[in-house]
Amino acid sequence: MAGRHCVAFVDESLLKGSHSPGFYLLAAVILDQDTADQARNAMRAAVGGDYFHTTKLHHAARFRVVEDALDTVAAHAGWVHIVTHAPLDVPKEIARQRCLGQMLPELNRQRVRDVILDSRGADPDPEKRDSNDLRDRRTYRHLVREGTISSRMALRHQPSRDEGLWMADAAAWATQRVLRSDDPVWWNRIADVTTVTDAVTGTDLHIRGDGGGDRAALPHGDHGPQRASQSAPPLLSPPAYPSAADAPPSFPDATLTDLVMQSLYARQAHARVEKQLSRSIAELSAEVRNLHHTIQRIAALHPPQSDAPEATPEPPDTGPQSGVDGRGDLRALE
After folding, report:
1. Region Disordered: what ranges (predicted)?
2. Are 66 and 186 in contact (CB under 8 A)?
């Protein structure tokens, strides 16, 4: 529909440790502005309260609430966009800004006009809280100045009281869970409306356990509320979930390893293309310089010659001359 604009809610998740390649990710849940309030109300109804944090709910074994929250995301989100930095081979803040720098241009192409990030500042002092989010705003302003995103896109931070940020928290947690613990049960509930992109190259990635089939493609133009995830049919009995007290694996699990390999292959291919492009540009520049030198040598050996005949001086005019007399009148002077 022409003129439709969207709002994106963004939250983060990460894993770092000595026995894992680690990852950092940003999850954006995109809602149509016309139906955003409906999605918020549905999320509040699914949670059944005024507070939501997926990790704490999972630790408290409140699995049904987590299920309902993820199904609400799948039913109401026009699109869920995950940008991952895996492996986490740089400081966290650098990884975050790379993810944000990759995410904002894609949101801009999808006509998102409001980007709301979960504020990372826990300090009640607004000045200190704002300083924790300053780097995000710097990345945003840099992209606006270079023309990568429109200045009509607004970016702001706010505490996680907005139900839209609850949806982003749920999506980030489900992605973190499948990467950290090789547990696709939660991820499969949103896989149909989710795309995953590498933060460094912008390459589309695939997460094991998503079925590899009816996943959401990167949207082009309009996108509206999607159907509920086909990977999450109604359950007749509660599934057997892993215990929340289970220790994380002390080695890279299959899902994260597969994602890291995809990212590294994409980076290698990207580097090869850049190297080939640089070599082609260097070769073209050398050819242009050689052509310029050749033209200069030819010009030096064959200086231009004028074929025009020499001008013959004209005889003086002895006829009457025109001029202005002392009275200022234009007349012939003898």
Report:
1. 117-136, 207-249, 297-334
2. yes
Which residue ranges form the domains of the chain, and what is each CATH number? 6-231+251-274 (3.30.420.10)
pTM as predicted: 0.71
The answer to whether 43 touches 87, Cβ cutoff 8 Å, is no
What is the predicted pLDDT for the residue at 252? Answer: 45
Nearest-angstrom CA–CA distance, 150 and 205: 26
- For residues 157 and 140, the answer to whether their CB atoms sit within 8 Å is no
User: What is the arithmetic mean of pLDDT over 220-237?
Assistant: 40
**325 pLDDT exceeds 80?**
no
Q: Which of 28, 62, 43, 262 is nearest to 161 (CA)?
A: 43
The 3-state DSSP class for residue 101 equals helix
3-state secondary structure of 308: coil
Distance CA 100, CA 242 (A): 32
pLDDT value at position 301?
Answer: 76
N- to C-terminal Cα separation, the chain: 87
